[in-house]
Amino acid sequence: MTNEDNNIEDLFSSRFSDAEEVPSSDIWSKLETDLDKQNNVEGMFQAAFQNSVVEPASSVWRKISATLAWRSFLTFHYNTFNIYYASIISAILGLTGVYLMQDKTADSSVTVADRIHNQAQYHAQFAKDEEYYKNLLALVQPETQTEEYMFDIEVQQTSTANQYNQKASYSDVKSHEQQTENAVASQNGKYSEGSNGDRTIDWSFVKITGTNSICKDIPSVYSIVGLTTHADVRWLLPKSAKKTSETGHNVSIAWQESGKQKMSAEVKVGKEKRVFDFAVTVEAVELPTIKGKTKVCQGMEKQLYYVDESINKEISYLWETQQNTIDNIGNKYINIDWTKSGKDTISVTKINTVTGCKSSASVGIVVYPQPKISFEYHPTGDMEYEFAFTESQRKGYSYEWSIEGTEYTEPVVTHTASGSGSSFASLKVTDKNGCFTFIQKEIDFNKNFIAVPSKFNVGSGKYFLPMTNADLRNYKLEIYNARNEKIWETSELDNGKPAVGWDGLSKGASLPRGKYMWKISATFNDGTQWKGVTQPNGSTQPSGIFVLEN
Hints:
The chain is of the alpha+beta class. Helix content is 24%, strand content 37%. The strands form twelve sheets. The chain has a five-stranded mixed β-sheet, with no helix packed on it. It starts with 7 loop residues before the first helix and ends with a strand. The model is unreliable at 106-110 and 136-197 (pLDDT under 50).
């Protein structure tokens, strides 16, 4: 029996509302006894569950994890996937699906007629591009048509063809595709389709390009241009042409013989074949010839050298020497100042700026040194002077003196001064090779004059002895070494002239060769004090350097 309106507590309450439950008289004593045994309620529980372990059910943890995950999904966080990110992704996928369905519907509406029309447009554009690349290739200068350049053009053409063929490669328009290609080819006038289906070409656009003027043994590239369809090319070369490489429709040739040459190319398109000729002028390598003196003297200036051939504006020359300086005075003319003696070489490189021909020539030059020159003079009497060449006298030397306008030809000469005052004396010495040296000095022919030697040879039997053209009242000569130590002195006069010269010894011992210094103090009989030797700058100095030779 069931009662949907009342619960069990109400039923019990109604049933026993008038009853009174009275416990038995001994129940309380039993309870007290049991409590005394267990001491208290806590003790009873402890005893009851002493060896028990409380473990939650496994389903509890799953419920807790699910609750936490759901709360995290409903809460927005930047670094976790949540409901907001899911909404955005769902929206994007939905829009993409709608777009794809519309595009598929649009594609299904394209008819075969539309595809045929698009195919014709693609091939018409391809024909225009093909024409552009062909004309571009034909306009390139032969010398710039390298293999890399030709390959680049072909790659661009192939890439363009693939682009259009891929866009219109429909199996149901093949026949219309062939008609479109033929129509475009006929319109351009470059090639057409023969009766048997082979392609033919407009041969008026086909030719050989390359350098028609070239130097012997220099490689040059030649090419077939004007081809708008596949063709087989076979090069027909003479024996004088050495083929160095061949790539595609290009061939590299080094001509082995000079003069007029001819090369040909056989071009085959389908069953049709043509031969094309190309004339080449090959220039021989001609060595330049240098004109000018091969034996020269040191000190010669502006010595002319040139190349012995006609002037050609296409030819340039590069000159060089090993030691001396070149002055270019024209394309094939130079001047050289021979400042350094010894052996030298003149080289010239001839370059043809059109054909690229290069050739070189050189010639050896001997540069003789100039003869060494110096002279001294001293008075020998009243207004009489001796002039002497002081360098080593060699066989083949010639001497040309000019003293106050008087000419002499000996290495040592005596000259009588025409009067007091200053004048010039010059000496020119020429050796057996024709090389010469010239020197000039200003000479003081005044009354009071002392001449001092510039060098002294101990073995010559002579002495280091100054000389004067006038009598001296007093006089002192001192000799010093390189350490500024006095090694000898004298003040002796004989009838107003220096009486004793230095023999090159110090305390009876020979001295090493080298530079030594002299110092003189003197007064003439008329009371004039000697001021010294005239220096190159015009000043006077009563001391100087001389060389001791052994």
